[in-house]
Amino acid sequence: MASACLLGSSAAYAEETKSSDGAKLGTVDIERVKLEGIGPGGDSKVSRRDPSDVIKVGDYYYVWYSRGPVKTGYDATVWCAKSKDGLKWEEVGESVGKSTVAGAWDEASVFTPSILVAEGKYWLFYTGISKNMKVKPDSKIGIAVSDSPEGPWERLPENPVLSSSPNKGDFDSHLVDDACLLVRDGKYYFYYKGRQLGKSPAHTQMGLAIADKPGGPYVRHKDNPVFPGNHEVVVWPQGTGVGAMIGKVGPADKVRTMQYSEDGLTFNATHTTNGVAFAGGTYRPEAFTNSNKGEVPAWGVEIGKSGKLYCIQRFELEWKAAE
Question: pTM surpassing 0.70?
Fold first, then answer.
């Protein structure tokens, strides 16, 4: 841990210390580290937020994030930064801009990126909103593809690849957002968050769509939602299963926990955490290898504060087994 740069952590864990089957849970300490280049103290008129998971290509780590003049993601474009050590970052530039097509679904803003590496290409998932929203926000998810992590990027003609459900009773009938991708059993697992019409952000839940090809079509799983909560979608391959970090949205016995699912659908708590990653993403070197050798993440990136706006900061995870 880079203790000289730590922003501090809480010693208070979630009250729930046992899993649903009565087993005692382990704990995970979350500590923060300031970053250079995309961290605090940069351009006071720019907000950086909603970072993707981190990938490594050659000597460089890459991350994508929302960048714009306001605190929310609703006036933003998707940018990229790279780093050799995960601490000092250099902005590469804009990856996906707002659509220039009048009336397009992603004309007003593009934000909350996520990355997939497959078939020798880079698939950048992003959320978009329109200028003439019938519900606010009317977010949908699209994909841009490139031969290089530094672009140029081309939107898929099939966009958006995931929209809110037309069935008002579904958990994702208001919006879909916050993609997080895995390769599992030779298929592309697209986890996302959804919210039902008439419900508040406190009722956000996690869903899953699956495709045979990285560009889709993505088909919602029949058992959606797969988790009853989670504002931030943070998942990773863990052995033969899927791990997940749960934030502060969801049932009281599930928030601020690490979860594991053998089938990628039914999750159970394994650890409590001393806090939450704010719209975070993790470094997951086995995310797209289909190797069944994924391990729990050691670090990631999240939203941090930079004056009145936001920046990107690093978090580090210390996993402790139940005593």
Answer: yes
- Cα separations (Å) of 291 from 237, 239, 260, 294? 9, 8, 17, 7
Radius of gyration over alpha carbons of the chain, in Å?
18
* Long-range pairs, 3-12, Cβ under 8 A, ≥24: 5/33, 5/34, 5/87, 6/31, 6/32, 6/33, 7/31, 7/32, 7/33, 7/34, 7/304, 7/313, 8/32, 9/274, 9/275, 10/274, 10/275, 11/274, 12/274
Per residue in 70-112, pLDDT tens?
999 999 999 999 999 999 999 999 999 999 999 999 999 999 9
Say if 291 falls within a structural domain. no
| CATH number of the domain that residue 204 is part of | 2.115.10.20
The first and second tokens of residue 234, run together, are 């943070």
Whether residue 276 is contained in a domain is answered as no
Q: Is residue 114 part of a domain?
A: yes
The number of folded domains in the chain is: 1
Output the CA torsion sign for 106, 111, 116, 117. positive
In a domain, 281, yes or no: no
Domain that holds residue 205: 30-227+298-320
